[in-house]
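Researcher: I'm preparing a figure for a lab meeting and need a structural model of a single chain. I don't have an experimental structure, so a prediction will have to do for now. The sequence is pasted below. Please return the structure as C-alpha cells so I can convert it later.
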Amino acid sequence: MARRVLKLASWTSMALAASGVCLYSNKYLDPNDFGAVRVGRAVATTAVISYDYLTSLRSVPYGSEEYLQLRSKIHDLFLSFDDTPLGAASLAQVHKAVLRDGRTVAVKVQHPKVQAQSSKDILLMEVLVLAVKQLFPEFEFMWLVDEAKKNLPLELDFLNEGRNAEKVAQMLKHFDFLKVPRIYWELSTKRVLLMEFVDGGQVNDRHYMERNKIDVNEISRHLGRMYSEMIFVNGFVHCDPHPGNVLVRKRPDTGKVEIVLLDHGLYQALTEEFRLDYCRLWQSLIWTDMQSVRKYSQRLGAGDLYPLFACMLTARSWDAVNRGIGQTSVTATEDSEIRNHAANYLPQISQLLNRVPRQMLLIFKTNDLLRGIEAALGTRASASSFLNMSRCCIRALAAHKKQKTHSLFRRARISLREAFSLWKINLHELVLHVKGLRLTGWVWALLCWLLPAPH
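Model: Understood. Here is the structure written out cell by cell.
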C-alpha cells in the first residue's frame, strides 16, 4: 500500500508539472505525454504515410480508372524518403522527403494506433485522478482530465494543425523574423501532414547560435514580441513552445535571423474578457500596483490565493513581486527559496489550478516553457521582455477602449495617449540598449512615473 501511495504521489507531482507549474525545475513536461499516449516511437515508412490515402480507395470500385489513378498517385508521391525520423514525440514523428517535383518536404506521420489508444489513455488518466482524490482529498486534478479530453482530439487532427499554422502565419505576418512552414494541403490528411522543410537549430542551443553568429538577446527579444502579440493582442496562442518546436536560423538568401515556429496542434483561444483582464494584471505586476494585482488576480479566479497566483505567473517570490519584478533581478537565493517552498504549497496550487479559468492552464504551461528557453539563453527577466509586454498591453487596452466609444474626439484622444506611451517605451529601450544595462531601480521608477497606471 505504501508503495502504491508513493507512486500516486509521484504522479501527482507530474500532473502539477504538466500543468505548467514547474517552479523548481528547468525540465518541463508535456501534459500530452501522460499514460499510454507514449505508444512508442514506431518506425514510420512510406507504407504508413500512404495509409490515409489507401483508405480512400475503399469507396472506389476495385480495378476502376479512379482506383488506378489513386494508387498510382500514392506510389509516385516521393522521389526519396528518409526512414530515420528528424524528430519523434508522443503522437507523431517527422521525416524528411523529396517529392517527385523536387520539393523538399517535412512529413509528419501520426504513430500507428494513437487514435484508438487515446480514449484508453484518457480513461486511465481519469481513474488515476479519482484514485488520487480518494487518497488525498485536498488534491483536485479533474481539470487535467477535462483538458486532455478537449485538447487531445484536436492534436490528433493534423488538418486542424495545418489551419492553425496558416492562421498564425497570417496573424503575425508583420514580423519579418518569423517563419511558419507552408502547408501542402493537397498531400495532407488527418494523420499525415506535409509541409515545407525548414532547417535550423533549437532555440535553446547556445553553441549553434555561437557557431552561426546569432545574438541570443535578439532571439529572446523576438520570441518575447511574438508571444506577447499572440497573448495580449490577438488572444490566439501557440501553447507548445518547447525547444524542439522553436528553431532559429539565418536565411540562406539574406543572412537575416529567423525564428521558425513548428507544431501547431495545440493552441488556446482567449476570450476578450480574459485577455483584457490578463493585460491589466500584467501591467499591474510590471508597475508594482499591488491593489490592482489583487483585483485582477481575483477577477481571473485566484480569490484569496492571489499572492500564490502572482508568484506562479512571474516565477518570482512574493517579496520580489512586492518590490517590483522589473526592479529586482532573479538571484540564485530566490530560485532556491522557490524550489524549497514549492512542495509545501502543492494543495494550494492544486486548488488554484482547479479554480482559474481553463484558458489559464495552457497559459501557465506556455509561460513556463518560455522561461525555460530564457534560462537556457541566459536572458531571463530582461528589461526588453517587460517592455515588449507593456507595448502589447497598451495597444490591446487602447484598441478595446476605441471599440467601446463612438466619439471621434475620444478615439483621437485614446490614440494620442497610446502613441505617446509607446514612444516613451521606445525611448527608454533605446537608452537601455545604448548603455547596455538592465532596468535599474531609478530607470524603472522613471518609467513608472511616466506611464499611465492600468485601469
